[in-house]
Amino acid sequence: MRKKKILELETMLFEQLVFSLADYIQPIQHNAAIIARLDCLLAFSKVAERYQYCRPTFEDSFIIDIRAGRHPVIEQQMPDGESYVPNDVYLDRDSQQILMITGPNMAGKSALLRQTALICLMAQMGSFVPATALKLGLIDKVFTRVGASDNISSGESTFMVEMNETASIMNNISDRSLILLDEIGRGTSTYDGISIAWSIAEYLHNHNQSRPKTLFATHYHELNELANKFPRIRNFHITTKEVGQKVIFLRQLVAGGSQHSFGIHVARMAGMPRSIVERAAHILAQLEQKSITTDFNSPDGVVAKKAATEKISPPAIQLSIFEAADPSTEKLKLALKNLQLDAMTPIECMMKLNELKKMIE
């Protein structure tokens, strides 16, 4: 009986405590919301001051005019002594609706697409932006088809996921949309991929109701032909510089299309065995030709030419004792090249031979 009374008393005290605190719940939540907003605005201001962000200008128009834009995350992860290369991006619905961006792997095409979307999002959420100037007409939707992944649980391949996402974009565009398409069609055969990418670009340009601003990054250099057929499509590319066997990525967006992807150079940089890289270069030299040309006498102006794979010559049998992808053999190769045998005594030669042996071990 006593325990029952104690339990009733504890219950009553708890109910009174909850009742008395209920009056403070709404003020506490209100204060928490205000503090969170102040914290966010303070973070915006500190970042803007520290990294020289600019104040965006909003217009009652459809333009995106970014001057010297930067990626807010990548620029903070640059190695010491390197600075992020800024780029201008201009889009509107009347003269430059679609930018067809070509260029090598690792040159920065995807980063350019992402930074454009991030700058627009940051501006519309009330933040200063990583650029020297920004004029922006309000954006209602940002659509992205970037990256490659499958959906194993649903039995969808990488290409099926890509097509599902792209179809969703095509069915929901508006005049104020921003669309980022990164290498559409790469998940299927070359000619299927080019056909799909070409058709998507045509659809976005010729849509009856909307002219969404679009950044279209691609390795299909054949799509450069679209700029000759449609007035609001412009070709741009990310610049590079070839120095001997190396490619230097300048990461600057300039007008005009590119005809090279430098995929073999990237494979070499990744440590691919030299025999594979050299064989790939030999095959590329035999295959490299435009697979789509413009024929204004044909109904749609598009003519496909199949690459002559049957003319690829068999690989020449060549044995190599050195493989550039192996650091130890490359070091040994360099040491042998630097030897001056004519100036060495027999004893010195034996000592050097023993040293080289230890390098291999």
Tag the structure with descriptive keywords.
361 residues, alpha/beta, Rossmann fold, 3 domains, 9 helices, 12 strands
What does this structure look like?
The structure is a single chain. Strand 7 (177-182), helix 4 and strand 8 (213-217) form a beta-alpha-beta unit. The longest helix has 49 residues, at 2-50. Mean pLDDT is 82; it is low at 290-297, 304-310 and 321-325. Helix 6 runs antiparallel to helix 7 (274-287). The protein is an alpha/beta fold and 361 residues long. The protein is built from 9 helices and 12 strands. It folds into 3 domains: 1-50; 52-262, Rossmann fold, CATH 3.40.50.300; 327-360, no CATH class. The strands form 3 sheets. The chain has a 6-stranded mixed beta sheet, sandwiched between helices.
Alpha-carbon distance between the termini? 86 Å
Please identify, by name, the CATH architecture of the largest domain.
3-Layer(aba) Sandwich
The CATH class of the largest domain, by name, is: Alpha Beta
Q: What is the radius of gyration computed over CA atoms, rounded to a whole number of angstroms?
A: 30 Å
* Biggest sheet character: 6 strands, mixed
- CATH fold name of the largest domain, please? Rossmann fold
Structural class: alpha/beta
How many domains, as an integer? Answer: 3
